[in-house]
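Final paragraph of the annual report: two paired records, presented back to back.
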Amino acid sequence: MSKKVKNITLFKHSGKVAHRKLGDETLLVPIDIKAGEKHGVYTLNSTATLLWNFLEIERSVEDLAIFVANEFEIDEQTATSDAEVFIEDLISFNALSVLERSL
């Protein structure tokens, strides 16, 4: 009997941005900018800062969605959609690494 392998995509801080908390906000600043990459400062509000902190270790979209749903008492579908948008935004800023793992 063979085991089925399940692939999962995980996300965590990329190490390509410096981050600094100022008041209720967190600023993300690129460390090493290459041609064609976005640059400038990315500002996270207090809610986004909470999510950013949650992604200090490897997490899946599902992990983040469950965290969002529980923290803000919203339905799972809305939480998943919000988590996906947040992750996509941070990937486009090179703030998150995308990792593939097999389970």
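The closing record of the year follows.
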Amino acid sequence: MQVKVPDTVFIRAGYSANAEIVLARAFDVLTIPESSVEFGNDSAFVYKIKEEKPKQVFEKSPVKIGISDGVKIEIKDGLAATDQIRGNKIDDKAKNKDKNKK
């Protein structure tokens, strides 16, 4: 790989640099945190919230995934923008634990 550096930029020996190589881009797609996706047996799943009260109830749903940047992952099928999934909200139990520590 070659990088062209403009004549107006001074580069010193011994310095380091970071670069990002973009292999693919997607625009106007549904993305979620990759940590919200469970992988197993060559499949990907998310847990959709079916009920929130009196107790949270989840449903394991398969999804078709697309490209990822290591933080966010594209969802091609199996999830709507209006769906709520596990991992996007702190449940009330976790909030109460933090209050009791003070």
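The chain has one domain: 30-101. This concludes the annual technical report; the extension proposal builds directly on these records.
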